[in-house]
């Protein structure tokens, strides 16, 4: 397996761990030590995702230089802000805090699906170079 394939697999596995940890959190909430373990796994996997994801972006979009990782970081912070705002709005509207991990797991699952789709769609790997050559 090529290095890029290993990194894509690692990113997918980490995203699956994040999704699973978020999904089981409401189920484990009645058992505080297990809920704490799920939170630790969720946090560790979330932070562990950044380096291989950036490596993958640089490998896939090498011709874009640092633009792809910069946009990835911007999307990360935008997602954090929007997620926090939506979570706060949900709590203000009277929804139980127990639904927030399910919502987060859904968003993470969508991200995982998008990642898997991107791995399969290798035709987009040279999009920046094609755009640059047309300009």
Task: Please give the alpha-carbon distance between the first and last residues.
Answer: 35 Å
Major sheet summary line? none
Shape: globular
Specify Rg, calculated over alpha carbons: 17 Å
Would you count the extended β strands for me? 0
Share of helical residues: over 70%
Beta-strand percentage range:
under 5%
Mean pLDDT: 86
Q: What is the chain-wise order of helices and strands?
A: HHHHHH
Number of helices: 6
Q: Which class do the helix and strand fractions yield? A: mainly alpha
- Are there runs of 5+ residues with pLDDT below 50, and where? none
Quaternary state of this entry equals single chain
What is the topology?
Elements: H1 3-28, H2 32-48, H3 50-60, H4 67-92, H5 99-120, H6 127-134
Helix pairs in contact: 1-2, 1-3, 1-5
Give a description of the structure:
The chain is mostly helical. Helix content is 81%, strand content 0%. The protein is built from six helices and no strands. Helix 1 runs antiparallel to helix 2 (32-48). The longest helix has 26 residues, at 3-28.
Give a quick summary of the entry.
The protein is mainly α and 135 residues long.
Features:
single chain; 81% helix; globular
């Amino acid at each position: 397996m090529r290095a890029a394939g290993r990194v894509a697999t690692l990113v997918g596995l980490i995203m699956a761990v994040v999704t699973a940890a978020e999904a089981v959190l409401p189920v484990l909430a009645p058992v505080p030590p297990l809920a704490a373990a799920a939170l630790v796994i969720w946090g560790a996997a979330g932070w562990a995702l950044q380096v291989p994801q950036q490596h993958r972006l640089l490998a896939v979009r090498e011709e874009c230089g640092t633009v792809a990782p910069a946009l990835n970081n911007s999307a990360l912070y935008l997602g954090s802000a929007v997620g926090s705002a939506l979570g706060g709005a949900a709590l203000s509207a009277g929804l139980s805090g127990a639904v927030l991990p399910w919502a987060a797991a859904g968003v993470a699952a969508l991200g995982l699906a998008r990642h898997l789709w991107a791995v399969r769609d290798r035709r987009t790997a040279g999009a920046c170079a094609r755009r640059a050559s047309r300009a």
